[in-house]
Write a structure and sequence with these properties.
CATH superfamily of the domain at 82-179: Immunoglobulins
Helix content: 10-25%
Order of helices and strands: HEEEEEEEEEEEEEE
CATH architecture of the domain at 82-179: Sandwich
CATH class of the domain at 82-179: Mainly Beta
Low-confidence stretches: none
CATH topology of the domain at 82-179: Immunoglobulin-like
Largest sheet: 4 strands, antiparallel
Number of strands: 14
Number of helices: 1
Mean pLDDT: 89
Distance between the termini: 97 Å
Oligomer: single chain
């Protein structure tokens, strides 16, 4: 039997220890190498964050909204647009049974959100006969400001020949919500409104004043006529283009005489796009 001396024993222990140290160093190096390789591959293949990846990243304040994304983060509790009253179908004239009737339609829409407006939303008026069959649909697109009650109107549209319109309904969809800071109501006012009868027409005259600091490419005016009970009996409208900041502009709107309309009850509504 061969016996180690004390020095030999120390050398054996030392050699074994060094072997373990080398193995540990090689293991660490091996692990670091593969970690770096795998991490590099992941980094190179990792998709670049975007505003359409279904994740809250970058500096977004919500999933794919806010921060650098153009899409606005919409509060979960935002109220939908709602009708503020019944949609009114106005039959124009007394068409023969086989003739094409013409109608105007007017409704009132309310935005109950005080901090958000819709810079665009789609709507549609559906006209039905007495049996509930749809005769025709009239689609449109418009805007509504935070807290606004807005009149929607389709003016003097023909229906198919021989149809018998009885009532209309309004549907709305796809509002594009914008915070009030970017979508404040324009400072437009109506002054000195007067409605009178002349040559078989109701003539509504007034003065449009742009008290805002910006110009408006188009200002839309809608006139609504009421009977003694406050029921809508007629609607008309016009528009004024290129209304400059601080400008005052006269307008005149015509409508054939409505027998039971009360001129003093006439109301004028206006709107213009003010997206900032």
């Amino acid at each position: 039997m061969f016996l180690y001396g004390s020095q030999g024993i120390h050398e054996v222990v030392y050699n074994r220890a060094m072997r373990h140290v080398k193995q540990l160093i090689y293991g660490i190096f091996y692990l670091a190498f593969w970690s770096a390789l795998i991490g590099g591959i992941y980094f190179l293949q990792k998709p670049t964050p975007t505003c359409f990846d279904g994740r809250q990243n970058q500096n977004e304040t919500g999933v794919d909204c806010g921060g650098r994304c153009a899409k606005v983060c919409i509060p979960a509790a935002i109220a939908p647009l709602a009708e503020a009253g019944d949609t009114k179908l106005i039959l124009l004239g007394t068409a023969a049974a086989d003739a094409a009737p013409r109608v105007s339609i007017v409704s009132e829409v309310q935005n109950r959100n005080l901090d958000f407006g819709a810079s665009s939303f789609e709507y549609s008026f559906q006209v039905y006969d007495q049996g509930g069959a749809e005769i025709q649909s009239f689609p449109g697109r418009t805007i509504i400001y935070p807290g606004e009650i807005k009149r929607l109107a389709f003016l003097n549209y023909p229906l198919p020949e021989g149809s018998s319109p009885a009532y209309a309904r309004l549907t709305m969809r796809n509002p594009l919500w914008i915070p009030i800071a970017r979508f404040p109501r324009p400072l437009l006012n109506i002054q000195t409104v007067n409605t009178s009868e002349s040559n078989g027409n109701l003539v509504t005259q007034g003065n449009l004043v742009n008290q805002d600091s910006i110009d408006f490419a188009t200002v839309y005016l809608t006139v609504v006529y009421f009977d003694p009970l406050g029921t809508v009996v007629g609607v008309s409208g016009t528009e004024r283009n290129n209304v400059a900041a601080g400008e005052s502009r006269d307008f005149t709107i015509f409508h054939p005489v409505i027998p039971n309309a009360v001129p003093d009850r006439t109301q004028v509504f206006l709107t213009a796009l003010n997206l900032r």
